[in-house]
Amino acid sequence: MGKGRGVTGPISLLFAFCFLLSRVEEAMTSVKVLSILLLAVTLAGCVGTVPPTGTSPGNQGPGRKFIIEEKLVRTEGPFQLWRVLYWSRDKNGRPVKTTAKVYRPTDTSVKRPGLIWNHGGWNQCTSLRQLFKYAELGYVVIGADYQGCDGLGEPDYLGTEINDVLGTLDWLKSHPEFVDVTKIYMVGHSLGGAITLRTLDTLPDLGRVREIKAAVVQATVYSENRAYKEEKNQEIRTELMEKYHLSDQEVQALKRSRSPDMPQNHDKVAVPIFIAHGTADTYVPPDHSKLLAADLAKMGVKHKLKLYPGARHTFDEPQLSEYLRDCQIWFQENSR
User: Fold this and answer.
1) Greater pLDDT, 238 or 240
2) Beta bridge partners of residue 179, listed in sequence order
3) How far apart are CA 315 and CA 196, in angstroms?
4) What is the pLDDT of residue 17?
5) Phi first, then psi: what are they for 259, rounded to 5°?
6) What are the backbone dihedrals phi and psi of residue 62, each rounded to the nearest 5 degrees, phi first?
7) 277 and 288 in contact (C-beta within 8 Å)?
8) Which CATH superfamily groups domain 67-223+259-333?
9) Is 85 in a helix, a strand, or coil?
């Protein structure tokens, strides 16, 4: 009996060791499985947060892969306000999220022309008031907030805004169920006018020049060097230096490379342009629009210049209603 117990002891220990080893292996297997599951969940969570291949702004076509989210904000009578979150590109060409606002009719059974609104100002979100005015005229209106708004991306000067605006064009084209994609127009106010001109100059390089039928620039910034006195130009340079943390030399180089001044940089604009400016605009003098009209004439681009007596930088009544009627007439005349 004593000898038997001596043999049984080591065997029992061996069985115990084997049992513990099997439990450890099971535990390790469980850890591996758990790790795989966690990895799968993580990857699943990344879906929709990383832009699909080939979705660079301006080359989307009718697809919708660049759209991250479309959210209804509120209904205002016969109109709905939507917030669109979509992929754009930053100044280094990297994917970045940005937003746009859309006013569209609640009734989407009828296709309506599309309109892109490019607002002015630096590091500001789009103006809902302006969007609504154009929506009341019968357009599906979208306005980019530009990078830097809502804490998304970094603000830029006449650079990344072009990418953001191309994204709004892609959004309109991605909704042919209620947008007449053969009739898309563009409007820009103040700095938004300069953004409009630069965007129109970019379209031929992308093979998309015919996607915008006609454009309007209101109180547009055009040629600071030719329209402003040196004191005003220095004031603008100082503001840009402080805003973008650049030296004076860097700001001047930036303005030379990105100015909407066509004889200086951009000569590919082929879209009919209506130019509207108030004679009482002290913020952006009418000389900007006069210079633009003269340059478009030299380039052979169809255009029309109209100065509104007494109108300031932001139009009020009665000039506002007159201006909106003029916009509609211009779009109708150039809709083919």
Assistant:
1) 238
2) 112
3) 19
4) 39
5) -60, 140
6) -80, -5
7) yes
8) Alpha/Beta hydrolase fold, catalytic domain (3.40.50.1820)
9) strand
